[in-house]
Amino acid sequence: MKYSKFTRVSSALVCAVLLAGCGASDDDGGNPRSEEEALAVSDGLTVADPAVVAASDIPVFPIEKYLPKVGEDARIAAASGELIRECMAGFGFTYEPPAPSQETLDSGENGANRARRYGVSSAASAAVNGFHLPKDGLGGQQPPPGIPPMSEAENKVFIGDQDPATGVAPGDKVAGKEIPPGGCSGEAQRRLKIEPRQRMAEKINNVSFARSQENAQVKKALQEWSACMGRAGHTYKTPLDALDRLTGETPSPAELSAAKADVKCKDSVNLVGVWFAVESEIQETLIARNEEVLAQDGTSFDALVRRASEEIAKS
What we know:
single chain, disordered N terminus, two-stranded antiparallel ribbon, 4 strands, 3% strand, two-stranded antiparallel sheet, 12 helices
């Protein structure tokens, strides 16, 4: 999904900070169909009379009820961090895992990223920040702190043979102790029963966004938006073009002007209303086709979050 510079920290990134996957291994949620069949989208989809939707007021997407919340992923990452800390200590290393804020742990946001899914949506933010995120991050959320610098030996124990660059082979030792498969991060994954795989809800979220951009109805709305931007003196084919034009840490006067025009043009041609309607229809179709695997994923993920919460409570 091409909106990474606009987004809040995604669930995948929160987990990647500690090299922990977001899928649960209790139940692999196997889909009897091929993935291509499970996620196929009709090329001729059309939504009659899409509702008028302001750029700043995007409704809830159908897939959101199935998506992991930022707070849930943060709990998994925090639990992984504690287990990694414990494992690293066994090798004589002091590891302090990145600690998510309470605000992040409590966050109900998810990967649908309504606030920036179709680019800048707030006229007030556009006037101050242009296409840049607010200084305090989207919705006040802070990016997770990074993994602290490590020595070569620490890195070997941390990641083990997951990264060929470490040169770690099965059975290798540090300080006389054998490095577990995948290092301490791999050990944490096994203890929490998590695996690095994408859940069906996340696949649907990504596919609906990508395929909606190929839809004729959305393309027409994008052309109307682009023409509106042209009349305002700005050349953009889609709102996502701004991703490739961000420069510096602060917006230029030209960027501020373009961002304000962007929001106005979205509302003028009902771009968000059309795009949301088409994408929601795609999601509804894919949800109906994959109800069983979505339910299985949800059950196993809920169990994973409980295990993570229990681990945090021990620390």
